[in-house]
Amino acid sequence: MDGEPCARLAQAPETQDVQEVAPLISDSSTGAVAQQDDTRVDEMLVIPTEGQAAPADAGEQSQLAALASAAAIRVSRERSELLQEDAIDASLDSMFHAISSSKAVIKSQQKDEPDLLYDQKLAIVKELFFCKPVVFLERFHKIIREDHLLCFRHLAGNYEVTFYCNEVRKSSMKKRARTNVRNKRYAALQQMIKDGEYFSDEQMRTRDPLLYEQYIRQYMTNEELLVQSSRNLGTAMTLTDLLMSTYQEKIVQQRLQWQQEREDACEEEEDEDEEDSPVSNAEDWVPSDDEKSMLRDEFISRMHQRFLDGEDRDFDYSTVDDNPEFDNLDIVNRDEEERYFDEEEPVEIEDMETELDRE
Question: If you write DSSP's letter for every residue of 252-297 in order, what string do you get?
């Protein structure tokens, strides 16, 4: 009995009953499929959509991603190697230029031989480096900078190379320490110029009365000298201050006399030309106001340089050199700083004959 309705449905699909049952079957099947799909989504956490690979393509995607990652790593490595090669080339050029433009003896020459040109020096330096880099490093390690050591990485492990590379690093550390001290002193100089006391006329004259006499005082008029003397006396508030001022002036005069006697003795021994002395023909020459201003600027500049060079004997330089507060002070631009500091101390290079000449 139960099989008859199924048979009739199969034999007569156009009947009304079939038409009513068919939609029900279709809806229920769709709901079941949707539920099944939701379950699979929850399990697989993948929702295939248009334009997105189906789960069956996951393996291919993983392979492609691995290939792309390997290619990216290879490109990055090649780019890093190219950058490193560029850095070595730049370091080589810098090192060759530093040596060729220095006063180092690149090649032993006879007295009558003309000096080597830059291009000739450069060719000899390059040939020695590429033929015998250890000898090159031994000869020129006093000129080579720390950033040039990149050029000797291919010789890592060589005892001589390690020794001379360490010498270059020690030298660089000393230069940095010296530069740090110079910067601190320059910062202190700017601060003291701003304060005004240490580099006042009175203080500078006390430290170097002869230099002050040569550049400023001997060209002052009687009125200017009277004003200066009155100003000094005016600062004395008590009898003690007045006595101290008188005593200080006596010390300045004694130091002036001692400096003058020493300079006269040196001039006699060295037979110097009187025109080189700033006091030569002073009695015949009366500077204009502009010239007086130039002389004053020159005097002040020399007093600044004395301080920077550590030649102010009565100044405690440890209060500057060991003071971390001066590390954070702004230093003016390099061009202005170079007015007070020489570029670098000259490097002493031994007379040498390159191995290329010996062969």
Answer: HHHHHHHHHHHHHHHHHHHT--GGGSTTTTTTT----HHHHHHHHH
